[in-house]
Structure formats: C-alpha cells, structure tokens
Amino acid sequence: MTSRSVRNDVSEDDKRVALISGSTSGIGAELARKLLSDGLRVVISGRSQERGEALQSELGDGSAFVPADLTADGAADALVSKVVERFGRLDVLVNNAAIDYTGPLLSATAHDIRTTLETNTVAAILLLQASARSMVDIGNAGSIINITSRLASAGVPGLAIYTASKGALLSLTRTAAVELAEHGIRVNAVAPGLTRTPLYDEWMAGLPDTEEVARAQAAAIPLGRIAESADVAAAVSFLASPGASYITGVSLPVDGGFLAK
What we know:
The protein is an alpha/beta fold. Helices cover 46% and strands 15% of the residues.
C-alpha cells in the first residue's frame, strides 16, 4: 500500500473544520474555496442570506452557511455553537469580517468611529474568544488567523479610523499568540495590500481615468501589480496548515513588497 492511498482513508469526522467570518463575497469567499480544496470542512458566515446560500450551493458538500451579524449581542458565541453543533469541532478561525471607512480624521463622527471599531475590532475579538474557548473545551490545537491590512503598519491620509481598527487587531494577534500558546492555539495575521475584489472593481468603475489610476497603483507596488484574492487565500491556507505548526504571533504581508519599501 502506498502512502498516497493511506491518506485517502481519513473519515469525514476527522477532517478539520474552519469558520470564516465575512465570507459570502470577495476575499472571504475565495478563502472558503481554498480551505475547502485543502480538505477542510468550511463554515461560511455573513449578513447576506442570499449571497451566503448561493456560495454554499457552489461549495457543496463539506460546507455550511450560518448567517450572523457579529455586532449583535451574543452573536459570536451563538455562531461558534452552531459550528460545533453542525460539525462537532472547530479547528480554524479566519477573522475576515470588516467594513471600510474612508474620510478625513477630523471629520469622522463618533458614530463612524464606533461603527468601524465595533465591526472590525470588537466583533473580531469576541469571535476569537468564542472560538478559542471552543478549541480549549474540545481539546483541539487550533489556528486563528486575523485578516488585518498593510495599512495597519503604514500611515495613509484619509484612512485613520480604518487603520486604527486593523492596528488594534494586529496588536491583539501578538498578545493572543503568547497567551493561547499553552493551549496549542496559534494566532497569526495576514495583512493584504490593495486587492482586486468586486468592491474594488466597483470603485474603479466610478473613476474618470481608471487606466491611469491602475498604472499609479501598480507603480507603488514593487512587484508591479495589485493582489488577487487567491494570493491572500494562499497565505491563509499556509498559516492554517500543519506546515505552519511552529509559527505563531506573526503578521504575513501579502502586499507585493509595499511595506518593504
């Protein structure tokens, strides 16, 4: 019997389970496709019932959709409970849900600030807590991956509130990695650069000179192009894999060298 055939006898119940927040479109949907292709069972989650059901139908067996608004009281605990109820375990959390906010720092209202931080930071912390508690209770060594941003490590005018929300998540990653290491839970971050998504395409379509903007964007990146969702998914796939079992507390930029300048 070859080693290849031995790998084929892994039962469905023994497959690892990943929960991806904010995964009904864009980068999150590509993360779901990638982790499912890696052999994990995948739970996608987001606010849109329509998009979630459509993606789950595309993904098929080994996937599930659980709608959730993670800013609601108790939503994080309820979501994790549903994952464990459905699949019996939780091994990987990808904290991907986020909203954008662009505008001058001095013009940001208290509502703008609170809404951005509630979604991008507070909800992510609560989901990390709920997921880690589940991993500890079940006795699973787990992997938690926070999707931050290159902007968590770079100052860009007009993005102060957004970068503050992602910078807090980056700091959380490092401390949580140290605190949860005794439970065998690894915590890392992936920091995407400018990435081609449906929202990016929509934004570009509204500009008067898209070709000039695209050239300027590429020129600002050492590798000469913006990221694709698949680039981000590949980084998450690695950090979630057994091959990264000795890696924790790091932030992996997927930015074409932007932060290296």
